[in-house]
Amino acid sequence: MVQQMQVRDINSEKEETMESVIELESRIEELKKQQLSLDLTRGKPGPEQLDLAANMFTCVDAGNYSAGSVDTRNYGGLDGIAEAKTLFAAYLGVNEDEVIIGGNSSLALMYDTVSQLMTHGTAGGGEPWFGKKTKFVCPVPGYDRHFTVCEHFGIEMVTVPMNEDGPDIDAIAQLVENDDEFRGMWCVPRFSNPTGYTCSPEVIQKLAEMKTAYSDFVILWDDAYAVHHHGAGPDSLESLLEACKKAGNPERVILFGSTSKISLAGAGLAVTGGSRNTCDWMRKRLFAQTIGYDKINMLRHVRFFKDLDGIMAHMDRHAAIVGPKFAAVEEVLSNELENGGIASWTKPRGGYFISLDTEKGMAGKIVKLAGELGVKLTPAGSTFPYKNDPDDRNLRIAPTFPGLEDVRKAAEVLAVCIKYVYVKENTGGI
Amino acid sequence: MVQQMQVRDINSEKEETMESVIELESRIEELKKQQLSLDLTRGKPGPEQLDLAANMFTCVDAGNYSAGSVDTRNYGGLDGIAEAKTLFAAYLGVNEDEVIIGGNSSLALMYDTVSQLMTHGTAGGGEPWFGKKTKFVCPVPGYDRHFTVCEHFGIEMVTVPMNEDGPDIDAIAQLVENDDEFRGMWCVPRFSNPTGYTCSPEVIQKLAEMKTAYSDFVILWDDAYAVHHHGAGPDSLESLLEACKKAGNPERVILFGSTSKISLAGAGLAVTGGSRNTCDWMRKRLFAQTIGYDKINMLRHVRFFKDLDGIMAHMDRHAAIVGPKFAAVEEVLSNELENGGIASWTKPRGGYFISLDTEKGMAGKIVKLAGELGVKLTPAGSTFPYKNDPDDRNLRIAPTFPGLEDVRKAAEVLAVCIKYVYVKENTGGI
């Protein structure tokens, strides 16, 4: 289980163990002099991770562009080349007729899916959502771009806590059982953004079986970090699709995945899947939307990774780069903050983020101060719908892009800022 | 100007000049024996055209993936890399802040635009179209995939003739001036699909200036064949965007273009453009839809073509391959049909199609007979909304994909089928 340090009560004990305001101000002055320019804002792979995929550029060329009998250079192939479907069916854990290969953006597949729900209704035949009051359950903290899609389409977002075993299933059931305006929910089920939590079998079972007032309730299951571990291998995840089928709700889940953080961030492959009926429903849209996605890039992925084992081996190489960066943040934060009891943070085994909670009302001030010291943090509130963290306490730390020493330095700056804001807040404001 | 042979009146004279039923049946038997398998259905480039872009595979590799300071491998760049914007602004004939670079499909950009109009209203601030009766003007014969987009979104299509100087502007004005349910129109303005016609300056002027009952009327201007000539260079085309700006209707036009038939059909670049306000409007959608399109593929295009002259030089090489195929069809049809006066067809200077009109009620029968002889033709009606050619007379011929000799053979089969169906229809039915 992910361990999480609990926020302790404010008491005199921890102030004794922490530096004084004067000591912290002295460190801040030191840090200012270093004129840092570090960025912990986005979950981007670092250049050395992208270098791992160097052979993707050349594994398909003007002499070997065929996938079976398909000339990947030409038009056609609405839902992907067969070889890519085989590979990514295994990746998603579905049958080969339950997967569709997209372009370079899983966000685009998710957006397009919500758009289709708005204008064309559900895979189960439900009416278009446009013009009807629609609410989504959003586990928080969560992925800002999921929330942006909802906001774009005027879908009201209602939050539930993201717990260590997945989204708070009792809170969800309470909402969706009684209110048919709840038409769907988001979930990053594995190494979740930003907490790193993974859904337990029990949560998955309940998501599949729960009663919903809206009969075509849809779970957008964004398994964005399916194989993105930090050294100990990916967490296992039960198949929500299988559970939904067994529960008699085969169209309840739509799966999404992406190789953006496996191959090349801007030129990966996005994939989506679900029941055969769900895939047929998606192909209806696709037929109107495109002649087909980039098959050459599909073939690059098939050639480069060969099979699921190839992806797994590749992700071990990613872990060797990413793992130490997460360990560095953990080490610095532990050393700087553990005795203070003024913040809690996740210790993820995979994914791209650490989620850190300060005491209430401090996140915005910490982000501002860190910025003044040359460390860019994701704006406070970003992990909540409408960018509104009601407690102003959650920070998302993205340590993958900078080099290891920069990550260590940025973590130090963050820790100093957390302590300084805490001390100032508790001694009369900053 | 494109020359078009006129259908003559049915009279005894032309039957004298044509083969008898017995002669035609003998030719049909001969053709059957050849067990042909030829395909004139889709506007796909042939393999030798795709070979022209062989260096696109290798012009970006693991050692030279940067576009200026941008690592094209990583995330970001919502509307395209600067170098691609420079190139395709020139290509579209717009300013660099009036272009957005997309993925591999201009159809997807068009679909997404219509989808945005449905759910989010117009660039000019008009209300969403969803739930409101919406009609589009559709020049015919036209591009089937445009019609599919309308059908998908429940937009009623009303046809006007596509004339040699562009869509029938008087017919359009008549419709849109008086009926505010007309919210938009499609147009392939240059080397149009399937007629090969190009809009005259007068038509463009009138499209920009015409009064529309619906104030946010939008022209989806799909310049799909901007540089796709057959040997004599591209037709010139006045800028509809400039004309619209001058007429005080800067948001009336949205431009689309694609390199699918320039570089690689399945892995080209799609581009869109319009006024700065229109581009801002599109970026609002894009921000919710994606982190960014494939920048590596943008860089491939920039490296391979360098500039607009590079594209032009490349299209001369395409013309050297495509031109003779169109000439072969023209030669065969002229030899076989010119004296009969039973069909008319376009003689395009560019684009991917020949549009052929038979006499009424014959197109479907000709397609069926040709299929029995091993020549696949686009289904009759495909060039009309709802696949309904009210006269059942239009055939779309796509001669680019097969080899030159196959094109010649397919044209012969087509001509024999046209003659046979004609003779049989006029001597008691087939």
How does this structure look, described?
Two copies of one chain form a homodimer. Chain A folds into two domains: 12-50 and 312-425, Aspartate Aminotransferase, domain 1, CATH 3.90.1150; 63-307, Type I PLP-dependent aspartate aminotransferase-like (Major domain) (Aspartate Aminotransferase, domain 2, 3-Layer(aba) Sandwich). Helices cover 40% and strands 13% of the residues of chain A. The first copy, chain A, has 14 helices and 15 strands. Chain A has an eight-stranded mixed beta sheet, sandwiched between helices. A three-stranded antiparallel beta sheet of chain A has the order 12-13-15, with no helix packed on it. Chains A and B meet through helix 3, helix 5, helix 6, helix 10 and helix 11 of A and helix 3, helix 5, helix 6, helix 10 and helix 11 of B.
